[in-house]
Amino acid sequence: MKNFLCIDIGASSGRAMLAGFNGNTISMKEINRFSTGSVITSTWLE
Question: Between the chain's N and C termini, which has fewer beta carbons within 10 Å?
Answer without folding.
Answer: C
